[in-house]
Amino acid sequence: MLKCSTFTNALKGSLRLYSVVSAPLNICGKKYATDEKMTNVTQSIVDLTGRGLHLNDSHPVGILRDAIETKLNSTDGAFKCYNEFLPVVSVHENFNSLGFPADHPGRSKSDTYYVNGDQLLRTHTSAHEMECFAHIRNGESKQSGFLISADVYRRDEIDRTHYPVFHQMEGCRLWTRKPQDGHIKQLQDDLSKLKSQLSQQKTKIIVEDDTSQEGNPKQDYMSHDEVELCSQHLKRSVELVVAEVFERKLESMRREEGLEIPSELRCRWIKAYFPWTAPSWEIEVWWQGDWLELCGCGLVQQEVLNNAGFPAESTISWAFGLGLDRIAMLLFEIPDIRLFWTQDERFHNQFEKGLISTFKPYSKYPGSTRDMAFWLPSDKDFQDIHTNDIMEIVRTVAGDLVENVKLVDQFTHPKKLKKSQCYRINYQSMDRNITNSEVNELQNEVARQLIERFGVEIR
C-alpha cells in the first residue's frame, strides 16, 4: 500500500472550502510546489490519493485487477506488472510524450487536476507508458510485455458512474522483428499457447469478428503475416480475459437460486479509432440484454515505439486499455461508484480475494434534492463557467454526500437579457441518514462559494 495522506470520509459537521492547497502540497509522502496560476487541486482530492483500491486484493477493483493479471500471465508469464506508480506525473509524461496537441481539451484546468505548471495528477495510465517501454528496451525487464494498473484523476461530472478518481489498466506486448522473419515463428508459437488456454476455459465464447481492414488499415511497415498474427494474439488475449472474469461471475450466479445462467458468452469485435494504435478495435459482450463495451485495443503505432526509443521498424506491438471500476461495477453489481470508496465494513466484508460476488445492499437511505439557480454576471456567457467547475465546488463542499448533479435549465431573460442556470443536486449518503439541516448547510455553502468564485446572483 502506498504511504499517503489519510482519507477523509464523508463530510460530518465541518465544511471543506473550495480553495487550492497552499504550498507545499503533500501527496503520498512527497512535497510539491504549487503556483497561483495553475494549481487547482483541493484538499478533498489530495485526501483520495494513495488509497490504493486496486492493490487491495479483497476489494472489487483489486479482485478484478488480480484476476486479469493472473490469467494473462498464466500462458507464458510475459507481463511485468506495475501497480505502485505514484499519482503525480509531469505534463510531458501525461501529454507531450503521447502526442497530445497543445489545444487538446484534456489539458485544460477544467478537465485536469494540476499540482503546478509542470506537474499534475495523472489522467491515464499511459503517463507511465514510456517508462515501461524503456525497461524492456534497456533490458531492465526480462518480460516482453507489461501491465499498468493505477488510480487516475479527472475533473468530471457527478453521478452514480463517475468519480474524480477511478482506475485504469493497460497492457502491452512486444516482439522484436528478426531477419528472415524469424519472429514469425515466435508469434505462431505464442498464439498457439493462447488458443490452447482458451480451449480449456469452462465458459464457451461465441465470437463475432467480421472486421475487415477497410477503414481500419494496417501500418505500412508491417507485413500481412505480422498484422494477422499480432492481431490474433491481441484478440485471443483479450478474449481469454473476458472468458475468465465472466466465468467467475457465472460461478457466483450459480451459488444463488432462481437465476437464469447463460450457457455461452457472446462477444463481438468492432472497428474503432485510437490515436496510438492502427488497426484498432473494441470488444463488446452481450450481457443481460445489451452489448457492453469492455475494452479498446489495437496494434501500437510505429511513432509511439519510435518515441519510446526503439529503432525504427524494429518492433511490433499490441496494446489494450480498460476501466477497472466500470467492469467491476458490472460484475459485482455495484449500484453507485461511491461505494468503492466507503470505509463502511458492511461493504468491505462482503468481498474476498479471488471471488466475484454480487453486492448485497445493506440499506437505502433517503436522498434530498435541492435546486441551485443563479444569474450569471453580465460579463459572462454560459461557456465562461464550465460545468466541471460547478461540479468541483459541489464535490469539495459535500464530498460523498452528493449522489448526482445535473444542469437542468439555462436560459436568457427576454427583457433583462440576464443569463440563468439551474443545477439540480441530489444529496444522499450510502452509509447513513443525512438531515435536512445538514443538507441546507451544504447548500448554503455551495451558494456562498459560487458567489465568491464566479460572482453569480442566487435566484
UniProtKB/TrEMBL annotation:
GO cellular component: mitochondrial matrix
Gene3D superfamilies attached to this UniProt entry: Bira Bifunctional Protein, Domain 2, Ferrodoxin-fold anticodon-binding domain
EC number: 6.1.1.20
Name of the molecule in the record: Phenylalanine--tRNA ligase, mitochondrial
Organism: Zygosaccharomyces rouxii (strain ATCC 2623 / CBS 732 / NBRC 1130 / NCYC 568 / NRRL Y-229)
Location in the cell: Mitochondrion matrix
Top EC class for this record: ligase
BP GO annotations: phenylalanyl-tRNA aminoacylation
The protein's role, per its UniProt record: Is responsible for the charging of tRNA(Phe) with phenylalanine in mitochondrial translation.
Domain FDX-ACB: 363-459
Record domain Aminoacyl-transfer RNA synthetases class-II family profile: where: 150-361
Transit peptide listed as a keyword: yes
